[in-house]
Amino acid sequence: MTAYLIRRVGTSIVVVFGVSIFVFLLLHIVYPSPAIDVLGPRSTHVAIVAWNKSHGFDRPWIVQYWSYIVGVLHGDFGYSYKVNQSVSALFQERWARSLYLSGISLIFAVLIAVPLGIYQAVRRNTLGDNVVTTLAFVTYAMPVFFLALILIQVFALSLPIFSYEASQSTNVLVVIGDWHAMTLPIATLTLIQVAGYSRYMRSTAMDALAQDYIKAARAKGLPERLVLWRHLVRNACLPMVTLIGLSIPVLLAGNLITEQVFNFQGLGLLFFTSLQNVDYPVLLAYTLLGAILTVVGNLIADIALTVADPRIRLA
User: Domain limits at 138?
Assistant: First the structure.
């Protein structure tokens, strides 16, 4: 186990550094210096050169990259000259709201998709299975913004039950308690994830139902409820561990489209605004954070899978 963890952590570190070098070099080519943003479009060449020298942007890109990585290791993700604020401060203001939005949606999606997928597998090719499959395909194929607009039109405009805009409070506790404003954003993310998770769960549950241990359990005369709960659910849910682990980046990065449609002040909306404002320090930090969370999610999923299923050998 220890050797496996060391190998996985070492591989993860290499991948993160590789992604960071690629993104930093790419953005450095596109955006070598923020001097014009700070000094203005009419600034002279002499002033730009002097500003770059005083802030270290005249150094080779590899030296700038090393300084940036050292800063990241100390919690400094750079400085946004567009909004005159550090990137770390911008992230600190918004990460908890994105965590709540994506986290609660993920929890609801798993709680709905797991029993729904098992129901479809047990009742496969019946009317109920066909109806759920049709709805899942329609929802899965539907763009996120289109589903969000449909929910807004039906439940916020035609039937004014919920708000068409997410909570604008900066207090996470207030956001959590504001179900009138947060129901539609959460429902949008939940429905999109349920569509994919339920199809995956249906497939794995059907594979598990065809295994010999299910047939043996039924042959022993166990009630169907015990067969499904003790044997089917535990084994069919193992692949879901990997999917949930891969969803970890979503928990902090938030959902860009959903946050933009509902004007939710999270990391996704921050990225969208920074993309429009050509705020490269924020874009770089956001991409690097996404890469780190993706690698960490894969690592956690692998470890959790080995804990949940002792049959998997790490050697």
Answer: 94-279
User: The domain that contains 113 carries what CATH number?
Assistant: 1.10.3720.10
pLDDT in tens, 186-243: 999 999 889 888 888 888 888 887 777 787 877 877 787 777 777 777 777 777 777 7
Task: State how far the alpha carbon of 225 is from the alpha carbons of 213, 232, 300, in Å.
Answer: 15, 10, 31
The pTM of this model reads: 0.83
26 C-beta neighbours (distance < 10 Å), count: 12
In a domain, 99, yes or no: yes
**Total of domains in the chain:** 1
Contacts with 148 (C-beta within 8 Å, 6 or more apart), sequence order = 184, 185, 188, 257, 258, 261, 262
Asked whether residue 102 is domain-assigned, the answer is: yes
Three-state SS for 231? helix
Cα–Cα distance between 200 and 247 in angstroms, integer?
Answer: 14
Residue 261 contacts residue 145 (beta carbons within 8 Å): yes
User: CB of 309 within 8 A of CB of 238?
Assistant: yes
In a domain? residue 8: no
